[in-house]
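Record type: monomer structure entry
Structure origin: computed from sequence
Chain ID: A
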Amino acid sequence: MTKMIRVGSQLAGEDDFIARLQRSDEASERLLVAQIKTDRATRASDGLVLASKAYRGPVIGLLTKQFAGQLDAATEVWNDTLERIYDRIDTYEPSRSKFKTWVFNQARYAAMDYRRRQAGLPRPVADLGDEIEDASSLHAEPLTDRESRALRSALRRLTPLQRSLVWNRYVRHMTPFEIAREGLSGEIPEDHVKVYVARALTKLRTNYLEELGA
């Protein structure tokens, strides 16, 4: 007998709902995202349990390959991925990608953070161009070599603070609250972060167009 579950205000068969999530069914993804947001407010985890049932297998499989068969490392990164999903669910934008794509994206960033922790290394700002290019490729055509060079040059022309703002917001998908508290250690007031991020992004775009033109 199929187990029935409640997602938001709707009842659904669990196996069917999981299968629809794995097919990136938009209606099912909307229900799951709403459930996770509700869970955050009530400190529940029903949505994460469903996300784990839908995506754990393929994500663990991908991570195991990336970590040369080390299942323990892949499992730890998957747990980190679940934390990222829970903490950053408000940053998910359905107009930019399927939720399944966003989950895999979070796993990729969690894997990067894991490798840096294992190596005892801080986050290298020089890698920002590669990650922004990688993230953009999920939603648009891949950058050409000329565009990639222009992006890296444009990033180098930003101040360290501007690069940090762009990285935290658009690569790590941190909220303004997270950026103020974690990424900048209180350097910029929380209510000013959005303005600073917008200015940094505008500067990056200007630099990019200038580099592309050159």
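Annotation 1: The CA atoms of residues 205 and 212 lie 10 Å apart.
Annotation 2: The radius of gyration is 19 Å.
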